[in-house]
Amino acid sequence: MKEIRDNARKMMDTFCKVCPICNGKACAGQVPGMGGLGSGSSFTNNIEALAKIKFNMRLIHDVTEPDTAVTVLGKKLDLPVLAAPIGGVSFNMGGAVSEEDYIQAIINGCKAKGIIGCSGDGVPDFIHQAGFNAIKSAAGHGIPFIKPWEDEELFKKIEAAQATGTDTIGMDIDAAGLITLRKMGRPVSPKSLEKLTEIIRRTGMKFILKGVMTPDEAELAVTAGADAIVVSNHGGRVLDHAPGAAEVLAPIADRVKGRITILADGGVRTGGDVLKMLALGAHAVMVGRPFSVAAVGGLQAGVETYIDTLTSELKQTMVLTGTSEASSVDRKILFSGLPGSVNLSH
Q1: Is residue 47 part of a domain?
Q2: 51: which strand partners?
Q3: What is the pTM of this model?
Q4: pLDDT value at residue 336
Q5: Residue 332 lies in a domain
Q6: How does pLDDT run across 265-274, given as a tens digit for each residue?
Q7: Quick one: which of 27, 43, 148, 313 has the fewest CB in 10 Å?
Q8: Four-residue CA torsion sign, 296, 297, 298, 302
């Protein structure tokens, strides 16, 4: 991974410094780029929210070979991780690799390691086209995400996504108001409950709604007929001063878990971070920027190496917390004994 990260640092140049700790501080305000919007606080809040969560270390047990597999939306994943939908290599990552090579590395690397990669959407059109082509070439093994465009463009892209062979589609509704699209004259917008319900019904596929940050909107996603939500603030790239995903995940899970699949995205960097999100109520997590660094720095081999790293870290953390299965993580593995801390073990 050091070689991959060193190469990515050269390839991404001023667009991403590939910092030792990817916390959004060195790239604050760099949108387009890999940073967070404005002060960058929403990006850093993702990292800090996870960092505040501690584990209870337990070693009097018989867990030596933990099972990292989960089943999400009918799909078995060898690791409870999906590569988050990210596109726009030329204006976000420096363009040292092509959009096509980038997304093929993501989709094929994830497929090779038994997980799922997601493709992004944006302007110019080759961003979503490259993603659709990569998923189609992988026999439908991938999830295309489409932004909340107006009807004509939205349904045209949904039809094209259906032709990739996938049975699942996502909408990153958290992209509403994204600066990069507004600058290009192609703004996206929020959707009413009625409109969202219509979109999900017309799609006729498993539907993931990305960008849910409150329990009441999680309820609305259930009402609209979504199959899954992603608790996400879009990597801190659309709204300054939003809380970190890990701060809001537990109350959302307490409200809707059992009625909808819950994914979480925001600040996940290590296998330990993955386990924290599972303990807070996620069925699986999405990882964004680290996959971009791995793909730019090493293409498919880089992606596979990063997945191997996550797997090793997750297994180690599961052993040290007495967690036998990633599909059943007890919130009691999280430490909540400090005065004034939130009790996470209920």
Answers
A1: no
A2: none
A3: 0.94
A4: 84
A5: no
A6: 999 999 999 9
A7: 313
A8: negative
Residue at 342: amino acid letter = V
- Say which CATH number the domain at 300 has: 3.20.20.70
Ranges of the chain whose pLDDT falls below 70 = 177, 179-180, 337-346
DSSP string for residues in 36-84: -STT-HHHHHHHHHHHT-EEPP--SS--SS-B--EEETTEEESSSEEE-
Q: Which residues contact 205 (CB under 8 A, 6 or more apart)?
A: 162, 166, 167, 168, 169
Nearest to 223 by CA among 200, 241, 204: 200
> Looking at the 3D structure of the chain, how many domains does it have?
1
Tokens of 205: 């596929």
pLDDT of residue 344: 52
Residue with tokens 């007495």: 322
Cα distances from 45 to residues 111, 225, 284, 343, in angstroms, run 31, 30, 20, 20
